What does this fold into?
Amino acid sequence: MAWVYLVVAGVLEVVWAYFMKLSDGFSKPGPAVITIVAMIFSFGLLALAMRSLPLGTAYTIWTGIGAVGAFVVGIVVLGEAATPMRLLAAGLIVSGLVLMKVSTPA
It folds into this structure.
């Protein structure tokens, strides 16, 4: 169950990052509230996952899902550049996440 908590926490990290961008520096109340609520749930689920997963694994996976997810949302939703170097960098992050998962028991 810890891995499920961790993946959902990572997805919520993408949600709060996206809505933080939409909040325009917290000047727009709707996106700002969504940002804060998603942050709270993301941190809460990360904390639950850390009950049984090692700190290094849990935090690395959480931030990696957030980083790659925000990168994808930036390209798909916000029209950011998908250059070969940026795609390679995201691929390296994903390969690191896979290696972290494979090397962690449970």
